[in-house]
Design a protein that fits this description.
Family (chain A): Belongs to the class-II pyridoxal-phosphate-dependent aminotransferase family.
Largest sheet of chain A: 7 strands, mixed
Shape of chain A: elongated
CATH superfamily of the largest domain in chain A: Type I PLP-dependent aspartate aminotransferase-like (Major domain)
Oligomer: heterodimer
Number of domains of chain B: 2
Helix content of chain A: 40-55%
Cofactor (chain A): pyridoxal 5'-phosphate
Distance between the termini of chain B: 24 Å
Enzyme class (chain A): transferase
Strand order of the largest sheet of chain A: 5-11-10-9-8-6-7
Structural class of chain B: alpha/beta
CATH topology of the largest domain in chain A: Aspartate Aminotransferase, domain 2
CATH superfamily of the largest domain in chain B: Type I PLP-dependent aspartate aminotransferase-like (Major domain)
CATH architecture of the largest domain in chain B: 3-Layer(aba) Sandwich
Strand content of chain A: 5-15%
Strand content of chain B: 5-15%
Number of strands of chain A: 16
Number of helices of chain A: 24
Strand order of the largest sheet of chain B: 3-9-8-7-6-4-5
Largest sheet of chain B: 7 strands, mixed
Radius of gyration of chain A: 40 Å
Low-confidence stretches of chain B: 204-211, 361-375, 490-502
Number of helices of chain B: 16
Order of helices and strands of chain B: HHEEHHEHEHEHEHEHEEHHHHHEHEEEH
CATH topology of the largest domain in chain B: Aspartate Aminotransferase, domain 2
Number of domains of chain A: 3
Shape of chain B: globular
Low-confidence stretches of chain A: 1-10, 58-88
Radius of gyration of chain B: 24 Å
Distance between the termini of chain A: 30 Å
CATH architecture of the largest domain in chain A: 3-Layer(aba) Sandwich
CATH class of the largest domain in chain B: Alpha Beta
Helix content of chain B: 25-40%
Catalytic activity (chain A): L-serine + hexadecanoyl-CoA + H(+) = 3-oxosphinganine + CO2 + CoA
Keywords (chain A): Acyltransferase, Lipid metabolism, Membrane, Pyridoxal phosphate, Sphingolipid metabolism, Transferase, Transmembrane, Transmembrane helix
Mean pLDDT of chain A: 82
Chain lengths: 581, 502
Amino acid sequence: MHQPTDVDMVEEMCAVESLTQDSPKDILRQCLEYFGADFQSKIAISEVNDLLESTPLISTPAPLNEFEPLITLDKEPPSILSVKGENSRACHAEIMDTVASAVMNIMNTALYWLTVAFDAPYARAVVFGVHISGHLIVEALLAVAIFFLLSRKSYKPSERSLSEKEIDELCEDWIPESLIPPLTEEMKYEPPVLESDAGPHTIINGKEVVNFASANYLGLIGHEKLLESCTAALEKYGVGSCGPRGFYGTIDVHLDCEARIAKFLGTPDSILYSYGLSTTFSAIPAFCLKGDIVVVDEGVHWGIQNGLYLSKSTIVYFKHNDMDSLQSTLEKVTLENKRAKKLRRYIVVEAVYQNSGQIAPLDVVIRLKEKYRFRVLLDESNSFGVLGGSGRGLTEYYGVPVEKIDIITAAMGHGLATEGGFCTGSARVIDHQRINSSGYVYSASLPPYLASAAITSIDVLEENPDLITKLRGNIAVLWEGLSDIPGLSAASNPQSPIVFLKLKKSTGSLKNDLQLLEDIVDQVLKEDFVFVVASKSSTVDKCRLPQGIRLFVSAAHSETDLLKASESLKRVAASVLADYN
Amino acid sequence: MITIPYLTALTTYFSYGLLFAFGQIRDLFRKILDRLRSSNLQGYAPICLGLEDFYVRRLYLRIQDCFGRPISSAPDAWFDVVERYSNDNNKTLKRTMKISRCLNLGSYNYLGFAASDEYCTPRAIESLKKFSPSTCSTRVDGGTTVLHAELEECVANFVGKPAAIVFGMGYVTNSAILPVLIGKGGLIISDSLNHNSIVNGARGSGCHSTPSHLEEVLREQIAEGQPRTHRPWKKIIVVVEGIYSMEGELCNLPEIIAVCKKFKAYTYLDEAHSIGAVGKKGRGVCELLGVDPADVDIMMGTFTKSFGSCGGYIAGSKELIQYLKYTCPAHLYATSISPPAAQQIISSIKVILGEDGSSRGLKPMSGLSGYDLSCICSHIGAQKLARIRENSNFFRSELQKMGFEVLGDNDSPVMPIMLYNPAKIPAFSRECLKRNVAVVTVAFPATPLLLARARICISASHTKEDLIKGLEVISQVGDLVGIKYFPAEPKKQEEEGRVKLE
């Protein structure tokens, strides 16, 4: 697999890295090019040399001043010549003498006139108390020369444009990579196909199986009231909305649904998105812009990762669900960046992490957020309708007033058994998204029957708080059943509706780990008709948490279902993992 | 290209200048008032700094009643628009119980599948009962039902590709696929008018998008390679749309394909607005312009428009789809498409292809084109397709005759009418609504600042009377607002330069 995964790697880093690795011939040149400086050493050196050659005689005019050449030479010949004059070959010496003195004469005259030429005009000039002599002129000339050189168009290698023929050849020679890498065996995975709804019991290959693969936490799939309201909506509104919210895609049920969610959570307003996954990756870029600081848990799901990437903000990760790490990160970020006080700062956490089943300790997050003045974006996709006495999510679970959370997002494709997502918060936060959130503005709105399903689901939840009690009981039963599972351990929070089993001992390679998990999952389905899934991750996903088996517990599961699942998992895990423990 | 009349450009600039100046003055007063009040930010930076939301505060909010009008019925040919009122100068709008029945010229209901349909709706309800509204699971876990498998096969057959993959949202399709197909060292050449979802997808993949002039750009990019390092690009994907939603233009696909083949670039065709709406059998621009679907590497489209459902698809080779099913985050992490929505797509495709087994009577549409469509078209799908084409071409030519500046090509059901001046946006929209015609007006940021427009979307469910009523109102309002930029006679030269049609 050569699919590049780190798409957000800073471009500059890569450029420099690839340069240092692959083209060691002329690093200086490459560096200069990279930093935008165009420097051609030959030209520059010759120009400097030219300058240097033109200066030495003039640059030291002071000693020449005292030389007074012509007069001295007349009175006393230089000592070397006089030594020569005492030579036996007098005649020859005399000729030499005359020639030499003539040459000296000419040189000295030239020097004298040069000095005079430079000194004369300003010899006694005093400007603002500064005695101006020739060297200042030279310096001025130098400065002019430097300015001239600087003002010249810089040298650009790319300007040597290729000829048409060369371009044709390059185009001819260019061999692109294939659109996709060659397929490997693991890519040929085909998921089980369901022949009925994805309720607690479903049909796969004609056999009824117990379903732990759907996040149907409240068991609302197939609920009578839900189907009734959907049918009515389908008959009234048709299936799709045929337009984005701005262009007649706003249907009264959307507004009713937004109001219903806000009322249920006790927030001023909420906004609907047409797809769960797009909720976070549209809402985050609406708030976090370039330059803003976002401190985020390293275990967040891809929707959040993508949102952060699209936002172009400065992203700082902290250790998965580790509040000490969060604190030190916040401390560091605030201290390091003097401007941090003026920037928008956000903490992004998930209530129940989809990738691990951990629950974020909201009380600590709130304490830290208030201390360091960060806004909090909380994704309640897997906790809405699940946590808290009446299903209002993590805020209720921790007894934190909902106003303390600035932005709450949630997908409705889990507990509410419909589709789409919502974001809720203050009126300011919501109105801002109605114009700035690309997934809201540019996408067709949620099909009306799904909005009406969401309303009904919340109604059902409010009328039957025992659904939550039942779910909690089921989670406890499953936990107990799985407590002594061989080779695997539950890595999720005991309150979380996602029960996440990871290998106690990794084989050392991700691929083998995943294969083991897949083997367990396959056998559990084939032999015991229990449908559980191993977590799969995309090549573009940057979350590096370990893979595991995920069980989505539902309030609709019976105790027999739960026991069947835990017995089956225990049995299969023991046989598959026998060699590894 | 749109050429703005000189005087119009000047007045438009002036209008925006005026709006800006007044906005600034109001901002100044607000700042002074804010100083007097104590800050309630408590050490948090404001959500919007300085001018970031200036456009929204001072321009958009003034006319926000023209956007997001709620409706209380299906978005069919006629629909119920809920009236709203504001007590605070348009800052917030409240719904009333009053509704007005309006002609719908705004929804993307090209084939008229938006309202409940006697073939599709019962089947959608049946699927709802069988599969519930949601699977609560991703496609790779427990979210693949027999319906999903059937849908993918059905879509692949319909667009003429070996395989397809479907997603629950059209926007996600673009923005999640592009990063998977192309990573660092790959180039996406994107048309400058492409939809925001493509732009986000291109951004998500770490490539930079370069606009039009395809051949020139391709030559230059292949010769120059990547910026700074000058390494050759690993691969180049050219992304074009079948019908540009804000322009109503058809892309010149045959030429684009030829150029891409010559330069070994891959083609990605986004048929969000064209699939189902154009072509003899509704198979999109490929069919309309005579391009073999095999020549397009990646075909993308949405189900929100012609099929009256939701979601999107990618169709391509078996290997490509297999690869996407393994890597694409939208397939791995997103809830699978809702079963009734999937059923709606399957049923509507069957209707389009005439596989619904009936030729139930569509009200004959005599008079419009001189002959009765129901006589020559064997089944309802063909009638719908013939009707959208007739309707679009009729409406477009009538608008042009009236002297409006209409963008786009023949056969395209999307037709923007240029407004330019900012004040004409709310004026046109409100006046039309007063006369019970609902139109969409589009302004910045969906279009360039100067090129504000109204956009008409024609549907197969419009009757001739509907269209004539619409034209009358638009003509009246056009006179009132002053947007008939051309003399009221058809201009010969406008026919030139348009895409040659079958």
